[in-house]
């Protein structure tokens, strides 16, 4: 287990990267860019990184994964209320990989990206509250 100062720095780095992804997705949404899958991807990435920041805060080990349901399952051990408040984040999981490549994934709609950004904002709000950052 890393010393407290190193541990706090790791959590801060996760939050910083998450904030960056959230800010980018919000900016792209406001500019009406046609790159909807990119907006959804960055919203998913923000939510994923906020979850990982909380997991790191609680010193809960997590795998390299984009599976938000799996990360939420781990978070229950550290903060059941936060995990419960964020259960809808699972809807963002397909935007991590499936929507980034051509294939069978449906077109990402305006409603999809609006909801994706809202869910990422919720994740940010919960993470910032929990971590007091």
How does this model look, in words?
This protein is mainly alpha-helical. The protein has one domain: Four Helix Bundle (Hemerythrin (Met), subunit A) (Up-down Bundle), CATH 1.20.120.330. The chain has five helices and no strands. It has helices spanning 4-30, 36-57, 68-75, 80-85, 110-131. α1 (4-30) runs antiparallel to α2, α1 (4-30) runs antiparallel to α5 (110-131) and α2 runs parallel beside α5 (110-131). The longest helix is centred in the first third of the chain and has 27 residues, at 4-30. The chain starts with a helix and ends with a helix. The mean pLDDT is 92.
Ordered list of secondary-structure elements with their pairings:
Blueprint: H1 4-30, H2 36-57, H3 68-75, H4 80-85, H5 110-131
Helix pairs in contact: 1-2, 1-5, 2-3, 2-5
Identify low-pLDDT runs: none
Quaternary structure classification: single chain
Could you give the distance between the termini? 22 Å
Query: Rough shape?
Result: globular
Query: CATH H level: which superfamily?
Result: Nucleotidyltransferases  domain 2
Q: How many runs of DSSP E, i.e. beta strands?
A: 0
What fraction of residues sit in β-strands?
under 5%
Please bin the fraction of helical residues: 55-70%
Going by helix content, strand content and strand pairing, the class is: mainly alpha
Order of helices and strands: HHHHH
